[in-house]
């Protein structure tokens, strides 16, 4: 909870509003990433726990195309993503976003063991992925030990373009 405001998502509906910003003063807490060209493509996205959903939502038996897509997601290397299902490495980012945005510390097991968790947990389903930024050698970005940074939003806030309510999970 104390990290609220330690990141910023800027929504620029027009490229005309985008301007280069100077890099912050030299500090041991800041370091620049190498610029990289971005390109977008539309692709299918499946929950990381797809194997738990077999028989409920998907019929995986004999679906070679689906298996190829899911295998590519797991073994595809660097995966940056805008919207869709996150490619989770550790834990449930939606539960963490729900708990932390409601004041529970999740840097250790404290928030997960808090009695308020049971009351707040159903709200984890209100969260969606806005952006996933993977560790990327091309940009000299390393999040922990080859981790990812996720930006999450409540569905309602995303629909309203309320980017002040975004949460970041590393």
Shape: globular
Q: Which bin fits the share of residues in helices?
A: 10-25%
- Estimated share of beta-strand residues: 5-15%
- Strand numbers in spatial order across the main sheet: 1-2-3-4
What do the pLDDT scores average to?
82
List the secondary-structure elements in sequence, H or E. Answer: HEHHHEEHE
What is the terminal separation in angstroms? 14 Å
Please describe what this structure looks like.
- The protein is an alpha+beta fold.
- Helices cover 21% and strands 12% of the residues.
- It is built from 5 helices and 4 strands, in the order H-E-H-H-H-E-E-H-E.
- The protein has helices at 64-75, 93-101, 110-113, 116-120, 155-159, and strands at residues 81-82, 127-134, 148-154, 167-169.
- It has a 4-stranded antiparallel β-sheet.
- The radius of gyration is 18 Å and the shape is globular.
- The model has no long low-confidence stretch (mean pLDDT 82).
Ordered list of secondary-structure elements with their pairings:
Elements: H1 64-75, E1 81-82, H2 93-101, H3 110-113, H4 116-120, E2 127-134, E3 148-154, H5 155-159, E4 167-169
Antiparallel strand pairs: 1-2, 2-3, 3-4
